[in-house]
Amino acid sequence: AGPGPLVIPPSQYFEGNDGPWSTFDLRVGTPEQYIRVLISTASPYSMIPLSDQGCSTSVFATVPPDCAVSRGNLFNPNDSSTWKDIGLYGINQNGVGLEANLGYEQRVQFGEDHLGIGLTGPGFDNQIVGGIATPEPFYLGIFGLNNQPMNFSVLGNDSSPSFITTLKDQNKIPSLSWSYTAGAKYRLKQVYGQLIFSGYDTSRFQETPVSFTMADDVTRDLVVALQSISYSGSTSTTLLSNPIDIYIDSTDPNLWLPAEACDAFEKAFGLTLDSQTGLYLVNETHRNRLLDSNAQVSFRLSDVKSGGDTVTIVLPYAAFDLTAENPLVENTSHYFPLKRANSSSQYTLGRTFLQEAYLSADYERRVFNVSACVWNEGAQENIVTIPSKDDPSAGTGGGPSDTSSSNSSGLSGGAIAGIVISVVLGILLAVAATIVLLRKRRK
Protein backbone atom coordinates (compact mmCIF):
# COMPACT_ATOMS: atom_id res chain seq x y z
CA ALA A 1 0.00 0.00 0.00
CA GLY A 2 1.16 3.51 -0.79
CA PRO A 3 1.16 6.52 1.51
CA GLY A 4 -2.05 7.94 2.91
CA PRO A 5 -3.15 11.39 4.07
CA LEU A 6 -0.80 13.27 6.39
CA VAL A 7 -2.49 15.08 9.30
CA ILE A 8 -0.45 17.88 10.90
CA PRO A 9 -1.57 18.57 14.49
CA PRO A 10 -1.98 22.24 15.49
CA SER A 11 0.28 23.76 18.14
CA GLN A 12 -2.50 24.14 20.77
CA TYR A 13 -1.84 27.91 20.81
CA PHE A 14 -3.95 30.85 19.66
CA GLU A 15 -1.67 33.81 19.02
CA GLY A 16 -0.62 36.67 16.74
CA ASN A 17 -0.80 40.47 16.98
CA ASP A 18 -3.88 40.58 14.70
CA GLY A 19 -5.72 37.46 15.89
CA PRO A 20 -6.15 35.25 17.85
CA TRP A 21 -5.05 32.59 15.32
CA SER A 22 -4.38 28.87 15.64
CA THR A 23 -0.72 28.15 14.86
CA PHE A 24 1.30 25.11 13.74
CA ASP A 25 4.79 23.88 14.67
CA LEU A 26 7.85 23.95 12.42
CA ARG A 27 11.24 22.36 13.08
CA VAL A 28 14.06 24.29 11.43
CA GLY A 29 17.80 23.64 11.15
CA THR A 30 20.24 21.11 12.62
CA PRO A 31 19.78 20.61 15.52
CA GLU A 32 16.10 21.45 15.11
CA GLN A 33 14.78 24.77 16.42
CA TYR A 34 11.04 24.86 17.15
CA ILE A 35 8.97 27.73 15.72
CA ARG A 36 5.19 28.30 15.71
CA VAL A 37 3.76 29.76 12.52
CA LEU A 38 0.57 30.53 10.61
CA ILE A 39 -0.44 28.75 7.41
CA SER A 40 -0.14 30.56 4.08
CA THR A 41 -2.22 29.02 1.30
CA ALA A 42 -0.50 31.36 -1.19
CA SER A 43 3.20 31.06 -0.37
CA PRO A 44 5.40 28.29 -1.83
CA TYR A 45 7.97 28.72 0.97
CA SER A 46 8.19 29.32 4.71
CA MET A 47 9.32 32.44 6.59
CA ILE A 48 10.32 32.75 10.25
CA PRO A 49 11.49 35.62 12.50
CA LEU A 50 15.25 35.83 13.03
CA SER A 51 16.87 35.89 16.45
CA ASP A 52 19.42 38.63 15.75
CA GLN A 53 16.91 41.37 14.84
CA GLY A 54 13.39 39.95 15.21
CA CYS A 55 12.99 41.37 18.71
CA SER A 56 15.40 44.31 18.57
CA THR A 57 15.01 48.09 18.77
CA SER A 58 16.07 48.22 15.12
CA VAL A 59 12.60 46.93 14.16
CA PHE A 60 10.49 47.90 17.23
CA ALA A 61 10.13 51.39 18.67
CA THR A 62 9.29 49.58 21.90
CA VAL A 63 10.11 45.87 22.05
CA PRO A 64 6.99 44.09 23.38
CA PRO A 65 7.29 41.94 26.53
CA ASP A 66 7.85 38.24 25.78
CA CYS A 67 8.60 39.30 22.21
CA ALA A 68 10.27 36.06 21.11
CA VAL A 69 7.41 33.92 22.45
CA SER A 70 4.77 36.24 20.98
CA ARG A 71 6.43 35.90 17.54
CA GLY A 72 6.31 32.09 17.78
CA ASN A 73 10.02 31.83 18.77
CA LEU A 74 13.01 33.07 16.79
CA PHE A 75 15.38 31.20 14.46
CA ASN A 76 19.16 31.53 14.64
CA PRO A 77 20.81 30.37 11.38
CA ASN A 78 24.24 30.48 13.08
CA ASP A 79 23.13 27.66 15.39
CA SER A 80 22.25 25.42 12.42
CA SER A 81 25.01 23.32 10.83
CA THR A 82 22.90 22.79 7.68
CA TRP A 83 22.03 26.44 6.88
CA LYS A 84 23.11 27.50 3.37
CA ASP A 85 22.72 31.22 2.78
CA ILE A 86 21.14 32.28 -0.54
CA GLY A 87 20.89 36.02 -0.02
CA LEU A 88 18.68 38.98 0.82
CA TYR A 89 15.63 39.38 -1.43
CA GLY A 90 12.23 41.04 -1.36
CA ILE A 91 9.16 38.78 -1.27
CA ASN A 92 7.99 40.57 -4.40
CA GLN A 93 9.62 42.73 -7.04
CA ASN A 94 8.14 44.72 -9.91
CA GLY A 95 4.63 43.90 -8.73
CA VAL A 96 5.21 40.14 -8.84
CA GLY A 97 5.52 37.80 -5.86
CA LEU A 98 3.89 36.93 -2.54
CA GLU A 99 1.05 39.36 -1.68
CA ALA A 100 2.30 41.87 -4.28
CA ASN A 101 -1.31 42.79 -5.09
CA LEU A 102 -1.93 43.77 -1.46
CA GLY A 103 1.16 45.96 -1.36
CA TYR A 104 3.21 43.77 0.99
CA GLU A 105 6.89 44.63 1.21
CA GLN A 106 9.36 42.51 3.17
CA ARG A 107 13.09 41.96 2.94
CA VAL A 108 13.94 38.32 3.57
CA GLN A 109 17.20 36.52 4.30
CA PHE A 110 16.67 33.41 2.17
CA GLY A 111 18.55 30.18 2.66
CA GLU A 112 18.25 26.41 2.44
CA ASP A 113 17.99 24.31 5.58
CA HIS A 114 16.34 21.32 7.18
CA LEU A 115 12.60 21.92 7.58
CA GLY A 116 10.06 19.71 9.33
CA ILE A 117 6.32 20.22 9.80
CA GLY A 118 4.62 19.49 13.13
CA LEU A 119 6.42 18.30 16.26
CA THR A 120 7.01 14.84 14.76
CA GLY A 121 6.02 15.11 11.07
CA PRO A 122 8.24 14.63 8.01
CA GLY A 123 11.31 16.83 7.57
CA PHE A 124 13.64 17.39 4.61
CA ASP A 125 17.01 19.00 4.00
CA ASN A 126 17.60 21.78 1.47
CA GLN A 127 14.19 23.40 1.91
CA ILE A 128 13.74 27.11 1.23
CA VAL A 129 13.49 29.08 4.48
CA GLY A 130 13.18 32.86 4.68
CA GLY A 131 14.32 34.76 7.75
CA ILE A 132 12.44 37.98 8.56
CA ALA A 133 13.15 40.76 11.05
CA THR A 134 10.48 43.47 10.80
CA PRO A 135 7.16 42.76 12.56
CA GLU A 136 5.10 43.98 9.60
CA PRO A 137 3.57 42.61 7.44
CA PHE A 138 4.47 39.26 9.10
CA TYR A 139 4.55 39.22 12.90
CA LEU A 140 4.41 35.44 13.15
CA GLY A 141 6.17 33.30 10.58
CA ILE A 142 4.33 31.37 7.87
CA PHE A 143 4.39 27.86 6.42
CA GLY A 144 3.62 27.86 2.69
CA LEU A 145 1.25 25.34 1.06
CA ASN A 146 1.53 26.47 -2.57
CA ASN A 147 3.13 23.92 -4.88
CA GLN A 148 5.05 26.32 -7.14
CA PRO A 149 8.87 26.06 -7.05
CA MET A 150 10.83 28.98 -5.62
CA ASN A 151 12.93 30.71 -8.28
CA PHE A 152 15.95 32.91 -7.63
CA SER A 153 16.57 34.33 -11.10
CA VAL A 154 19.66 36.19 -9.89
CA LEU A 155 21.31 32.83 -9.27
CA GLY A 156 20.86 31.62 -12.83
CA ASN A 157 17.24 30.49 -12.45
CA ASP A 158 18.10 28.25 -9.53
CA SER A 159 14.83 26.56 -8.57
CA SER A 160 13.90 24.77 -5.36
CA PRO A 161 10.79 22.58 -5.02
CA SER A 162 8.06 23.51 -2.56
CA PHE A 163 7.55 21.49 0.64
CA ILE A 164 4.38 19.80 -0.66
CA THR A 165 6.18 18.79 -3.86
CA THR A 166 9.00 17.29 -1.78
CA LEU A 167 6.44 15.38 0.31
CA LYS A 168 5.01 13.87 -2.89
CA ASP A 169 8.43 13.21 -4.49
CA GLN A 170 9.61 11.43 -1.31
CA ASN A 171 6.45 9.27 -1.33
CA LYS A 172 5.18 10.69 1.97
CA ILE A 173 1.77 11.62 0.49
CA PRO A 174 -0.20 10.24 -2.49
CA SER A 175 -1.16 13.52 -4.19
CA LEU A 176 -0.34 17.23 -4.50
CA SER A 177 -3.30 18.35 -2.41
CA TRP A 178 -4.19 19.69 1.01
CA SER A 179 -7.08 20.77 3.22
CA TYR A 180 -7.01 23.62 5.70
CA THR A 181 -9.31 25.53 8.01
CA ALA A 182 -8.07 28.29 10.31
CA GLY A 183 -9.86 27.20 13.49
CA ALA A 184 -12.09 29.42 15.61
CA LYS A 185 -11.34 30.38 19.20
CA TYR A 186 -14.93 31.59 19.66
CA ARG A 187 -16.47 28.19 18.74
CA LEU A 188 -17.25 25.43 21.28
CA LYS A 189 -14.31 25.09 23.70
CA GLN A 190 -11.93 26.77 21.25
CA VAL A 191 -11.50 24.86 17.97
CA TYR A 192 -7.96 24.68 16.59
CA GLY A 193 -7.06 24.87 12.93
CA GLN A 194 -6.61 21.76 10.82
CA LEU A 195 -4.04 20.96 8.13
CA ILE A 196 -4.09 17.72 6.13
CA PHE A 197 -1.97 16.83 3.10
CA SER A 198 -3.65 14.57 0.50
CA GLY A 199 -6.93 14.33 2.37
CA TYR A 200 -9.79 15.98 4.19
CA ASP A 201 -11.82 15.44 7.35
CA THR A 202 -15.55 14.99 6.72
CA SER A 203 -16.33 15.66 10.39
CA ARG A 204 -15.28 19.31 10.01
CA PHE A 205 -17.53 20.53 7.17
CA GLN A 206 -20.89 20.27 5.45
CA GLU A 207 -20.63 18.54 2.08
CA THR A 208 -21.44 20.67 -0.96
CA PRO A 209 -22.02 19.91 -4.66
CA VAL A 210 -19.84 22.85 -5.74
CA SER A 211 -16.41 22.26 -7.26
CA PHE A 212 -14.22 25.24 -8.14
CA THR A 213 -11.70 25.47 -10.97
CA MET A 214 -8.32 27.04 -10.21
CA ALA A 215 -7.48 30.27 -12.01
CA ASP A 216 -4.60 30.31 -14.50
CA ASP A 217 -2.58 32.81 -12.43
CA VAL A 218 -0.58 30.51 -10.12
CA THR A 219 0.01 33.38 -7.67
CA ARG A 220 -3.78 33.92 -7.32
CA ASP A 221 -5.20 30.51 -8.14
CA LEU A 222 -7.94 29.91 -5.55
CA VAL A 223 -10.43 32.34 -7.09
CA VAL A 224 -14.20 32.04 -6.58
CA ALA A 225 -17.17 34.01 -7.84
CA LEU A 226 -18.61 35.88 -4.85
CA GLN A 227 -22.23 36.24 -5.95
CA SER A 228 -23.50 38.07 -2.88
CA ILE A 229 -22.77 39.21 0.66
CA SER A 230 -25.77 39.67 2.93
CA TYR A 231 -26.13 40.96 6.48
CA SER A 232 -28.73 39.84 8.98
CA GLY A 233 -29.14 41.26 12.46
CA SER A 234 -31.66 43.77 13.72
CA THR A 235 -32.28 44.37 10.01
CA SER A 236 -31.33 42.56 6.81
CA THR A 237 -29.44 44.15 3.96
CA THR A 238 -27.23 43.39 0.96
CA LEU A 239 -23.55 44.29 1.37
CA LEU A 240 -22.39 43.49 -2.18
CA SER A 241 -24.42 44.81 -5.11
CA ASN A 242 -22.61 43.11 -8.00
CA PRO A 243 -20.85 39.71 -8.16
CA ILE A 244 -17.04 39.76 -8.14
CA ASP A 245 -14.20 37.29 -8.60
CA ILE A 246 -12.28 37.05 -5.33
CA TYR A 247 -9.15 35.24 -4.14
CA ILE A 248 -9.14 33.04 -1.01
CA ASP A 249 -5.84 33.45 0.86
CA SER A 250 -5.00 32.65 4.49
CA THR A 251 -1.80 34.76 4.42
CA ASP A 252 -3.66 38.00 5.20
CA PRO A 253 -6.30 38.26 7.96
CA ASN A 254 -8.60 40.74 6.22
CA LEU A 255 -11.52 40.86 3.82
CA TRP A 256 -10.39 43.08 0.91
CA LEU A 257 -13.59 44.28 -0.76
CA PRO A 258 -14.81 46.97 -3.21
CA ALA A 259 -15.33 50.46 -1.77
CA GLU A 260 -19.13 50.26 -1.98
CA ALA A 261 -19.10 46.96 -0.05
CA CYS A 262 -16.90 48.53 2.64
CA ASP A 263 -19.37 51.43 2.87
CA ALA A 264 -22.18 48.91 3.37
CA PHE A 265 -20.21 47.09 6.10
CA GLU A 266 -19.53 50.42 7.83
CA LYS A 267 -23.23 51.24 7.85
CA ALA A 268 -24.39 47.76 8.93
CA PHE A 269 -21.92 47.44 11.82
CA GLY A 270 -21.43 51.10 12.72
CA LEU A 271 -17.73 50.98 11.83
CA THR A 272 -15.35 53.93 11.55
CA LEU A 273 -11.91 53.74 9.95
CA ASP A 274 -9.12 54.98 12.23
CA SER A 275 -6.93 57.21 10.07
CA GLN A 276 -3.83 56.72 12.20
CA THR A 277 -3.75 52.91 12.14
CA GLY A 278 -5.77 52.22 8.99
CA LEU A 279 -7.89 49.79 11.02
CA TYR A 280 -11.60 49.68 11.82
CA LEU A 281 -11.12 49.97 15.59
CA VAL A 282 -14.09 48.97 17.77
CA ASN A 283 -14.42 50.26 21.34
CA GLU A 284 -15.51 47.98 24.18
CA THR A 285 -19.08 49.30 24.43
CA HIS A 286 -19.74 49.01 20.70
CA ARG A 287 -18.07 45.58 20.61
CA ASN A 288 -20.34 44.20 23.33
CA ARG A 289 -23.38 45.60 21.54
CA LEU A 290 -22.30 43.90 18.30
CA LEU A 291 -21.61 40.57 20.03
CA ASP A 292 -25.04 40.70 21.69
CA SER A 293 -26.77 41.50 18.39
CA ASN A 294 -26.17 37.98 16.98
CA ALA A 295 -25.53 39.65 13.63
CA GLN A 296 -24.07 37.49 10.88
CA VAL A 297 -22.75 37.88 7.35
CA SER A 298 -23.43 35.33 4.59
CA PHE A 299 -21.09 34.90 1.61
CA ARG A 300 -22.58 33.06 -1.39
CA LEU A 301 -19.89 31.48 -3.59
CA SER A 302 -19.98 29.76 -6.95
CA ASP A 303 -17.65 28.89 -9.81
CA VAL A 304 -19.65 31.31 -12.01
CA LYS A 305 -20.92 34.84 -11.33
CA SER A 306 -24.58 34.04 -11.95
CA GLY A 307 -26.52 30.79 -11.59
CA GLY A 308 -24.64 27.54 -11.10
CA ASP A 309 -24.23 25.53 -7.91
CA THR A 310 -23.57 27.68 -4.85
CA VAL A 311 -22.27 27.32 -1.31
CA THR A 312 -22.97 29.82 1.46
CA ILE A 313 -20.47 30.49 4.25
CA VAL A 314 -21.95 32.28 7.27
CA LEU A 315 -19.73 34.28 9.64
CA PRO A 316 -21.13 35.34 13.02
CA TYR A 317 -19.95 38.69 14.38
CA ALA A 318 -17.57 36.79 16.70
CA ALA A 319 -15.54 35.82 13.61
CA PHE A 320 -14.82 39.51 12.99
CA ASP A 321 -14.04 40.25 16.65
CA LEU A 322 -10.25 40.38 16.40
CA THR A 323 -7.55 41.97 18.55
CA ALA A 324 -4.78 44.26 17.29
CA GLU A 325 -1.57 44.60 19.30
CA ASN A 326 1.82 46.31 19.02
CA PRO A 327 3.07 47.44 16.52
CA LEU A 328 -0.28 47.70 14.68
CA VAL A 329 -1.60 49.89 17.52
CA GLU A 330 -0.03 51.51 20.59
CA ASN A 331 -2.59 49.99 22.95
CA THR A 332 -4.31 46.64 22.47
CA SER A 333 -7.61 47.25 20.64
CA HIS A 334 -10.48 45.35 19.08
CA TYR A 335 -10.72 45.72 15.31
CA PHE A 336 -12.87 44.59 12.39
CA PRO A 337 -10.74 42.93 9.63
CA LEU A 338 -11.97 44.89 6.59
CA LYS A 339 -9.82 46.58 3.93
CA ARG A 340 -10.85 48.83 1.05
CA ALA A 341 -9.53 47.34 -2.22
CA ASN A 342 -8.03 49.80 -4.70
CA SER A 343 -8.63 47.46 -7.64
CA SER A 344 -10.16 44.08 -8.47
CA SER A 345 -6.70 42.49 -8.20
CA GLN A 346 -6.87 43.11 -4.43
CA TYR A 347 -10.23 41.40 -3.80
CA THR A 348 -9.38 38.80 -1.14
CA LEU A 349 -11.14 36.61 1.42
CA GLY A 350 -8.46 36.31 4.10
CA ARG A 351 -7.85 34.19 7.19
CA THR A 352 -10.94 35.60 8.94
CA PHE A 353 -13.12 33.91 6.30
CA LEU A 354 -11.35 30.57 6.83
CA GLN A 355 -12.50 30.40 10.44
CA GLU A 356 -15.89 29.32 9.06
CA ALA A 357 -14.78 27.82 5.72
CA TYR A 358 -13.05 24.49 5.03
CA LEU A 359 -10.73 24.72 2.03
CA SER A 360 -9.34 21.79 0.00
CA ALA A 361 -7.00 22.29 -2.97
CA ASP A 362 -5.97 19.67 -5.54
CA TYR A 363 -3.12 20.91 -7.74
CA GLU A 364 -3.06 17.77 -9.88
CA ARG A 365 -6.63 18.24 -11.12
CA ARG A 366 -6.52 22.07 -10.77
CA VAL A 367 -9.72 22.08 -8.69
CA PHE A 368 -10.57 23.12 -5.14
CA ASN A 369 -13.48 23.06 -2.74
CA VAL A 370 -14.91 25.51 -0.21
CA SER A 371 -17.36 24.16 2.37
CA ALA A 372 -19.05 25.54 5.48
CA CYS A 373 -17.48 24.34 8.73
CA VAL A 374 -19.66 22.42 11.17
CA TRP A 375 -19.25 22.60 14.93
CA ASN A 376 -20.00 19.31 16.67
CA GLU A 377 -18.53 18.82 20.14
CA GLY A 378 -16.60 15.55 20.34
CA ALA A 379 -16.94 14.72 16.62
CA GLN A 380 -14.64 11.89 15.55
CA GLU A 381 -12.15 12.62 12.77
CA ASN A 382 -13.01 10.92 9.49
CA ILE A 383 -10.03 11.37 7.18
CA VAL A 384 -10.59 10.69 3.48
CA THR A 385 -7.78 10.32 0.93
CA ILE A 386 -7.42 12.59 -2.08
CA PRO A 387 -5.74 10.15 -4.50
CA SER A 388 -3.25 11.09 -7.17
CA LYS A 389 -4.60 11.85 -10.63
CA ASP A 390 -2.14 9.20 -11.86
CA ASP A 391 -3.56 6.52 -9.55
CA PRO A 392 -5.27 4.01 -11.89
CA SER A 393 -7.91 3.28 -9.24
CA ALA A 394 -8.72 6.98 -8.74
CA GLY A 395 -11.82 8.60 -10.19
CA THR A 396 -12.10 12.12 -11.49
CA GLY A 397 -12.59 13.64 -8.06
CA GLY A 398 -10.13 15.36 -5.85
CA GLY A 399 -11.95 16.92 -2.92
CA PRO A 400 -14.95 17.03 -0.64
CA SER A 401 -17.34 18.09 -3.39
CA ASP A 402 -17.29 14.62 -4.89
CA THR A 403 -17.09 12.84 -1.52
CA SER A 404 -14.50 10.39 -2.82
CA SER A 405 -14.06 7.53 -0.40
CA SER A 406 -10.92 6.62 1.49
CA ASN A 407 -10.45 3.66 -0.84
CA SER A 408 -9.48 6.31 -3.42
CA SER A 409 -12.15 5.31 -5.93
CA GLY A 410 -13.25 8.87 -6.56
CA LEU A 411 -16.86 7.68 -6.54
CA SER A 412 -19.56 9.68 -4.82
CA GLY A 413 -20.92 8.57 -1.46
CA GLY A 414 -24.26 7.74 -3.10
CA ALA A 415 -22.58 5.59 -5.73
CA ILE A 416 -20.61 3.72 -3.08
CA ALA A 417 -23.77 3.16 -1.02
CA GLY A 418 -25.54 1.85 -4.12
CA ILE A 419 -22.71 -0.55 -4.85
CA VAL A 420 -22.65 -1.80 -1.24
CA ILE A 421 -26.43 -2.39 -1.28
CA SER A 422 -26.17 -4.21 -4.63
CA VAL A 423 -23.36 -6.43 -3.35
CA VAL A 424 -25.25 -7.25 -0.13
CA LEU A 425 -28.43 -8.07 -2.10
CA GLY A 426 -26.40 -10.22 -4.46
CA ILE A 427 -24.91 -12.17 -1.56
CA LEU A 428 -28.34 -12.65 0.05
CA LEU A 429 -29.82 -13.89 -3.24
CA ALA A 430 -26.91 -16.27 -3.73
CA VAL A 431 -27.32 -17.64 -0.19
CA ALA A 432 -31.08 -18.06 -0.70
CA ALA A 433 -30.54 -19.87 -4.01
CA THR A 434 -27.99 -22.20 -2.38
CA ILE A 435 -30.43 -23.07 0.46
CA VAL A 436 -33.21 -23.83 -2.05
CA LEU A 437 -30.85 -26.00 -4.11
CA LEU A 438 -29.66 -27.97 -1.04
CA ARG A 439 -33.26 -28.58 0.07
CA LYS A 440 -34.16 -29.91 -3.40
CA ARG A 441 -31.15 -32.24 -3.35
CA ARG A 442 -32.11 -33.56 0.13
CA LYS A 443 -35.61 -34.32 -1.14
How would you describe what is shown here?
Helix content is 15%, strand content 34%. It is α+β, with helices and mostly antiparallel strands and 443 residues long. It has 3 domains: 6-180, Cathepsin D, subunit A, domain 1, CATH 2.40.70.10; 196-379, Beta Barrel (Cathepsin D, subunit A, domain 1), CATH 2.40.70; 417-443. The protein is globular, with a radius of gyration of 24 Å. The protein starts with 5 loop residues before the first strand and ends with a helix. This is Acid protease. Belongs to the peptidase A1 family. The chain crosses the membrane at residues 415-438.
Short descriptors:
Aspartic_peptidase_A1; 15% helix; disordered C terminus; eight-stranded mixed sheet; Peptidase_aspartic_dom_sf; 3 domains; Cathepsin D, subunit A, domain 1; globular; 443 residues; alpha+beta; 6 helices; aspartic-type endopeptidase activity; PEPTIDASE_A1
* Main beta-sheet strand count, sense and barrel state: 8 strands, mixed
- Supply the number of structural domains: 3
Q: Give the radius of gyration.
A: 24 Å
Helical fraction: 10-25%
Strand content: 25-35%
Annotation field: number of helices: 6
